[in-house]
Specification:
This protein is 49% helix and 11% strand. By secondary structure, it is α/β, with parallel strands linked by helices. The chain has two domains: 115 residues, no CATH class; 177 residues, no CATH class. The longest helix has 24 residues.
Length: 313
């Protein structure tokens, strides 16, 4: 892998790189400076971990490569890999360790944590992550082009700003994918804190809608974000017959209990994630409308909404 350029950013946004026999090297350059260096421009293949910390690195690298291709320069590949290549958060914050793992990943890591070429969908996902952190106004415009937007916006009581933060926190659902059991989302549920113990503490969760920390998805607990993303109305104000309120029917069936809130929130994550995966993998095998809607007319209503969203996007 001597032609492979390995990249990572540290906590200050400076680029670290590894190439040929160099395991890791601090460039002391910002991302915008590094993508204009000969080291980056001459790389045939570039890889980095798909972490939120690397969002700016991924988006600016992709844009720089596309600019060079439009000018007739040789093709260069850019790939992102699962953050689980470095399974512990503290290790993902260590550029030296991350670059070593990209270089010398064990066989299990190579098999389980696939690398994906950065395409327009991946670019949009990391642009959203970067924008939520650094440019909230821009993030709202980016979110409308995100592969999860049509499913999020269908839910009649969804709060798009909060849902956007939740989507940015997930980054890419493939990092939680179980290939042997692709419909199983237990890793993602665990990551988002969707557990009975957490939801027992959410009895008065709507009081947190006005908390200023909701502007920072890194501060707010993921279970709060997930619940608030779809349920910002009062139960008495919901028209339960509408197809877009299918989550509220689940919540009502459990007498609006904490377990019902958890079940409906898991269904929200399923609904969004299955559609998201279908859109970025083009398999169209994850989402099954009959699992969420009680009639064919409801399924057709979502199909019509999805078609309209794609036209607008």
């Amino acid at each position: 892998m001597s032609d492979l350029l390995r990249l990572h950013t540290d906590a200050e946004g400076k680029v670290w790189c590894g190439y040929k026999d160099v395991c890791s090297h601090p460039t002391n350059l910002s991302v915008s400076e590094f993508v204009n260096t000969s080291t980056f421009k001459s790389a045939k293949q570039t890889r980095c971990l798909g972490t939120a910390q690397n969002a700016s690195l991924i988006t600016q690298s992709y844009q720089a490569i596309k600019r060079r291709e439009s000018e007739g320069e040789p093709f260069s590949s850019l790939e992102v890999g699962s953050p689980q290549l470095c399974p512990v958060r503290a290790l993902r914050d260590d550029p030296v360790y991350c670059l070593m793992r990209i270089w010398q990943s064990d066989s299990q890591a190579r098999l389980l944590h696939h690398w994906h070429p950065v395409d327009s969908f991946i670019f949009n996902s990391y642009l959203l992550v970067d924008s939520v952190k650094n440019s909230p106004g821009k993030a709202k415009a980016v979110f409308k082009h995100h592969p999860s937007f049509s499913s999020v916006s269908f839910v009649g009581t969804s709060n798009l700003d909060i849902a956007m933060q939740l989507v940015a926190k997930i980054v890419d659902p493939r990092w939680f994918w179980n290939e042997d059991k692709p419909h199983r989302l237990s890793k993602l549920y665990r990551y988002l804190g969707l557990t009975p113990a957490n939801f027992k503490n959410l009895d008065n969760f709507k009081e947190f809608v006005s908390v200023s920390d909701l502007d920072n998805p890194l501060v707010v607990d993921s279970s709060f974000l997930t619940a608030l993303a779809w349920s910002t109305k009062e139960v008495d104000s919901i028209n339960y017959s509408l197809p877009e309120n299918f989550l509220w029917r689940i919540y009502r069936e459990s007498n609006f209990s904490s377990n019902g809130l958890l079940k409906a929130s898991k269904n929200f994550v399923q609904f969004v994630t299955y559609n998201w995966l279908d859109n970025i993998t083009f398999r169209k095998s994850m989402f099954d409308a009959s699992s969420f809607f009680k009639t064919q007319n409801e399924a057709l209503a979502y199909q019509a909404h999805e078609g309209q969203s794609q036209k607008q996007g």
